[in-house]
Amino acid sequence: MSSLAANHFNGGCLWKYQVSKVGKFRIRATWMASSSTPAQSMEFGEGKTNKLRIGVLGASGYTGSEIIRLLRNHPHFQITLMTADRKAGQSIESVFPHLVTQDLPNLVAVKDADFSAVDAVFCCLPHGTTQEIIKSLPTNLKIVDLSADFRLQDIAEYEEWYGQPHKATALQKEAVYGLTEISRKEIQSARLVANPGCYPTSVQLPLIPLIKSNLIEVRNIIIDSKSGVSGAGRGAKEANLYTEIAEGIHSYGITRHRHVPEIEQGLSEAANSKVTVSFTPHLMPMSRGMQSTIYVEMAPGVTTQDLKDHLGNYYEHEEFVVLLKNKEVPHTRHVRGSNYCLMNVFPDRIPGRAIIISVIDNLVKGASGQALQNLNLMMGIPENLGLSCLPLFP
Ligand SMILES: NC(=O)C1=CN([C@@H]2O[C@H](COP(=O)(O)OP(=O)(O)OC[C@H]3O[C@@H](n4cnc5c(N)ncnc54)[C@H](OP(=O)(O)O)[C@@H]3O)[C@@H](O)[C@H]2O)C=CC1
Ligand SMILES: CC(=O)N[C@@H](CCC(=O)OP(=O)(O)O)C(=O)O
Predict the structure, then answer these.
(1) Which of 78, 148, 209, 317 has a Cα-to-Cα distance from 113 of 20 to 30 A?
(2) Which residues pair with 123 in a beta bridge?
(3) Centre of ligand 1 from the C-alpha of residue 92, in Å
(4) Is the pLDDT reported for residue 368 higher than 60?
């Protein structure tokens, strides 16, 4: 059993956290220790709520609605601003009837938003639009951006894969790539975090630790990924009609999906050399969930058990990344609606190769859940606040 402690200021009080770990699971205890100065409490916002005031930009979209759902169970965050584009002016229950029981502000257009009543924002907007909107936000705000706009360090690469020049290059330099379990230290001190894409999360969580320890070769990495349709957002698109999606699957973006440079950026950094991957995503007839099946070549003398042992040790103390035991096969059903990434490693029939399978919920660990983990970290509070719900099953 181990423990770690953290302090933060909220509503004029210093809250002390003691996080105790027993094996894989964390038990959290909180208590109020003493009064803080007004200046310190400013860090967490002022006003009637005594909570950190959160803006959700793009609250009428799928990832925005997941942020709202997760924040329902957050002890220190309260939503005070929600924006939409076409749906500006509407109430949240008219857009998402499942949120009717929540006491939330109406949706406003970004141009009409009052950011003086906000301490931090989740930016759940389409890429391209996001850069200019973030550029115009007050610089005191903490921001977690769920779009792809600040993920690629090389702006020439951004232009190549996203088909438009980057319009906020200074902010791009400031942004920290938010793959939580890998870059926790950098995220803690960041003001702007670029939340990873869903496919890159499912691929990098298993591969980065193995590459860093030279357990797999960085050539011939083949990634076969499958996503639920919510990955494409809520906007109406002909290709996403029930009649186009149901009872069939199809690949898309073969060799040119915009997550290729993001995956290669993360793996190259881990390898300290340029890594090129084969990546093919598929659209599945399911509303949410994502699986990546990854075929790798092991380094000379390395066995699949070595890969398992390493991933097991690497993630031993992580709440949200779990290496399955024995030959258990990860299943998207087992992460549905939760912030978990489940993974396992299997021997391939081809000697020297291994098959790694990882699953996440694209909207939670692949988007809003990881974004909340990151904002918790940026605020110096326990990373799992609002996130420790079990998956929906069946
Ligand atoms: N869906 C997923 O699984 C994942 C998505 N992401 C990324 O997160 C971001 C949000 O995705 P998602 O929630 O799926 O998208 P949605 O299409 O479901 O929602 C987009 C939101 O942005 C608003 N919006 C659209 N255009 C504009 C604009 N020009 N100005 C201001 N607001 C605008 C929409 O408002 P309105 O409804 O009124 O039109 C809506 O609230 C995207 O960048 C996406 O790529 C990242 C990881 C996973
Ligand atoms: C099924 C589907 O369409 N998925 C989206 C990826 C969703 C996501 O994570 O992408 P960003 O955050 O990078 O936008 C796609 O392939 O473009």
Answers:
(1) 148
(2) 57, 145
(3) 15
(4) yes
